[in-house]
Design a protein that fits this description.
Elements: H1 2-7, E1 23-24, H2 25-30, E2 32-33, E3 36-41, E4 44-47, H3 59-63, H4 71-78, H5 83-86, E5 91-96, E6 99-100, E7 104-105, E8 126-127, E9 133-134, E10 154-159, E11 163-169, E12 177-182, E13 187-194, E14 197-205, E15 214-218, E16 223-229, E17 240-247, E18 255-264, E19 269-276, E20 280-283, E21 290-295, E22 301-306, E23 323-328, H6 334-339, E24 349-351, E25 368-374, H7 379-390, E26 398-405, H8 414-423, E27 427-433, E28 443-444, H9 449-456, E29 466-470, H10 473-485, E30 493-495
Parallel strand pairs: 1-5, 25-26, 25-29, 26-27, 27-28, 29-30
Antiparallel strand pairs: 2-3, 3-4, 4-5, 6-9, 7-8, 10-11, 11-16, 12-13, 12-20, 13-14, 14-17, 15-16, 18-19, 18-24, 19-23, 21-22, 21-24
Length: 498
């Protein structure tokens, strides 16, 4: 209402004295400060300088789109907002691609009148070039590194008659995770994980809500949305009460799960679906793992790390409240044998909150990326494949997955990955086997200097600028050594550690 009153006060919010004029990308890029903020949405340019203080998501959130065409960002974060009505008094003019044309005076003493000369008398003695160039959109400003600042989620909520949406704004590419725990029909605990820090939000709604809720994370903006159905449809005057706590103890959040399905999908590997004993919804950060602990035969507790995989890569259905794992069962692996047993299915399995150090912002300037995986090390890579192919900013040009295994039967998710590569040619999938059968007609061997040199070479069609590595420690060490000795920058390599 304060914003509406300001717009009705006669104040020149656009700063143009009512004159509407086209705006070029170059001109738009000059207005990128808090004191002078222009933004373009769906072909229209607005002066949002005075609106910054009124933006529900905060100044920093709106500044992400200032000085450029923010259409994609707007549609990802809140495409449903009627921005045309909200910013009507801030309208400057349409966004235009401006053509730069060089007009060269004719040299009448030269061979200008030869039979091959284009006619020029109609334009007053000047000739037009056959090509024109359009001013491109400016390069987006790089977001701040989550490692260099503490990120405190900003809370907001919106509602419809039938449901309400709880929103947390984090930061661009900070790779957050969220766990929602149902306490009762009015009380919900929400844990937002950013790096190694967990922020606990304890909500007591004004009225009862239904469980389960649904959730999504917009990875590029870091926006978290949780939708709760209302038990009694109505518009609320308030969402209720909220208390926030900062939790840094990584052991907080360990919960018990039971295996509800265990299906063998190759000669020694299983898809295991774990269901929480409490009412939970979990969305894990990309590339993060969980610590799984169980009391095995003999009474000892054994812990191993596993990375939950996207539902689309599982050979069995996985309910939204469950965690899906791909587990290789080793003959000497006490935990892997325990959680992959068929009867009875494993129970009372302790699962930690997600852990890891994978930072999406490190990939922001790279559009040619290699993913090198060995054996079960493919699991954190799967989520990265999906994210990079769907990324809207700095779209990927080449995503090269090189997957190492002993035998052909050891390859996980082969059909799924090759189907994605067939549909999206930016992804290439190469399988390399160290102990293949005679019938194998693909590549043979291990990680080698030749492979590293091909990836590191700037003249190779396979050259890449960033590399993710995941496999056994010996594989990881050898890969990093070969890449760096081939001239690949160590700072552009990420190694997943279990």
């Amino acid at each position: 209402m304060d914003w509406i009153r300001l717009g009705s006060s006669g104040c020149d919010l656009a700063g143009t004295k009512g004159i509407v004029a086209p705006v070029s990308h170059a001109e738009l890029s000059k207005h990128c400060k808090k004191s002078d903020a222009w933004i373009a949405i769906r072909g229209k340019v607005y002066n949002v300088t005075q609106y910054l203080d009124f933006h529900p998501g905060g100044i920093d959130e709106l500044m992400r789109g200032v000085g450029k065409d923010a259409t994609k960002l707007f549609e990802e974060v809140h495409a449903w907002v009627n921005y045309e009505q909200l910013l009507a008094k801030c309208y400057i003019g349409p966004l235009r691609n401006v053509a730069s044309i060089n007009l060269e005076p004719l040299d009448t003493t030269s061979t200008a009148h030869s039979k091959n000369q284009s006619p020029t008398s109609a334009n007053g003695g000047f000739r037009l070039p056959f090509s024109i160039s359009l001013t491109p959109s400016p390069t987006p400003t790089a977001p701040p590194s989550p490692e260099k600042e503490e990120i405190i989620p900003r809370f907001d909520w919106i509602q419809k008659t039938s449901d309400l949406t709880i929103i947390f704004y984090t930061k661009t590419l900070c790779n957050p995770g969220v766990t929602v725990e149902y306490m009762n029909d009015q009380e919900i605990d929400i844990r937002v994980l950013i790096g190694r820090t967990t922020h606990l939000f304890q909500l007591k709604f004004a009225h009862e809500v239904r469980w389960p809720c649904s959730g999504r994370i917009a990875l590029e903006s870091g926006k978290i949305e949780l939708v709760f159905g209302k038990t009694q449809p109505a518009l609320w005057t308030s969402f209720g009460l909220m208390e926030r706590k900062k939790v840094t103890d990584l052991e907080v959040g360990v919960r018990e799960f039971d295996a509800i399905q265990c299906q063998k999908f190759n000669h020694d590997s299983y898809a295991v679906i774990l269901e929480p004993k409490r009412r939970l919804l979990q969305i894990h950060p990309i590339g993060y793992h969980v610590s799984v602990t169980a009391r095995v035969q003999g009474g000892d507790e054994v812990t191993r790390s596993y990375t939950p995989v996207p539902v689309s890569y599982l050979p069995v259905p996985c309910p939204t409240n469950c965690i899906g794992l791909l587990v290789k069962s080793y003959s000497s692996g006490m935990l892997s044998k325990h959680i992959t047993r068929q009867s009875p299915l494993a129970s009372a399995i302790k699962v930690s909150q997600p852990r890891g150090g994978f930072a999406l912002y490190r990939l922001r300037n790279h559009c040619r990326i290699a993913l090198l995986a060995a054996g079960s090390g493919i699991t954190p890579i799967l989520g990265i494949v999906d994210y990079l192919l769907e990324r809207s900013n700095n779209k990927i040009e080449l995503l090269k997955l090189v997957y190492f295994n002993r035998k052909e039967e050891d390859i996980w998710c082969r059909r799924k990955l090759e189907a994605i590569a067939q549909k999206d040619t930016r992804l290439s999938v190469a399988h390399i086997l160290s102990e293949p059968e005679d019938t194998w007609d693909g590549a043979r061997g291990r990680i080698s200097e030749e492979i590293a040199m091909d990836l590191a070479s700037r003249t190779s069609p396979n050259s890449i600028t960033f590399c993710c590595v995941c496999g056994p420690p010996a594989f990881n060490d050898a890969t990093v050594t070969l890449l760096t000795s081939s001239g690949f920058p160590n700072g552009d390599i990420h190694v997943f550690q279990g």
